[in-house]
User: What shape does this take?
Amino acid sequence: MKKLTEKELENRFWELADQITEPLIKIAESHTSPSIERSVLLRMGFSSLEAAAIVKQASDKMLLGKGPAILYILFQKKAEKLCMKQEQRCRKEKNGTRLRNISRKGVR
Assistant: This one.
């Protein structure tokens, strides 16, 4: 170390710093906690109560590691598709009922 120049010493410092922090970064990328997930949900615009409820449900179902924010977004998209299909079904049923009513009235 005594033979290293100032620049070489600085480079060696950053190499060692990278080696030390690499395992921590891997853990941070692959692990989460309820407080981290609540924080993400709060930044997405959820209230504190909503975020806590979403995180609790995810935790109860062992889905915390999947990221409740992402799960919520996926659920919302699926729910929107189901609602759209339900609305289309209701419109078709209403149109069919109207046609039956009109034909009944015309027959009388």
User: Anything to note?
Assistant: The chain has a mean pLDDT of 80. The helical segments are 6-30, 34-43, 48-60, 68-107. The chain has two domains: 1-31, 32-107.
